[in-house]
Amino acid sequence: MMLSSTSNAEEIRDLLYEIAETIERELYCFVYLSSHDCCFVPYAYYDDIIGEINIRGTLPEFDKLVALAHEVGHVLDDTNPTNIVQEELNAWHLGYKFMLMVGVVINTEEYFDKMYECLSEYIEKQK
Q1: CA-CA distance, 123 to 82, in Å (whole number)?
Q2: Which of 4, 57, 95, 125 has the fewest other C-beta atoms within 10 Å?
Q3: What are phi and psi of 91, to 5 degrees?
Q4: What is the pLDDT of residue 100?
Q5: Where are the extended beta strands (E) located within the chain?
Q6: Cα dist. 28→22, 45, 70, 89 in Å?
Q7: Quick one: CA dihedral 100, 97, 113, 111, positive or negative?
C-alpha cells in the first residue's frame, strides 16, 4: 500500500507509532511524535541511546510520516558531509530507504516534492 496525503489519517497515525517503536528498539533512538519542532538531537553522553527524534505534533499525519522518515535518515547517516545541503540530502534519501525497509511505501512524488522544498530553503540560506 502506498501512503500519500490522501491516505487515511488514522491508519498513518497507527503506523507512526509502530515505526517509532521500531526506531526505538532497533536504532536506540527515542521518538517523540508531539514535539514543537522536527529535528534529530544526538546524545553525546549516553552509551546505549544515540539520541532523540522530535516530530512537530501539529503537522498533518502524512507530513509527520515524511518528517519522521527524514529525521531517521539523520540517525542513519554515518558520513561526515562537508556542507548542510549534502547532510540534508543524505538524510532524505536514507530516510526513504529506511521506510521501504520497514515496509512503508511513501508516495515518491509527494516525498521528493517536500525534499526539494526543504533543500531549497537550505540552498537559499547559503547564498
Answers
A1: 14
A2: 125
A3: -65, -40
A4: 97
A5: 2-3, 29-35, 39-42, 51-56, 105-106
A6: 9, 14, 17, 23
A7: positive
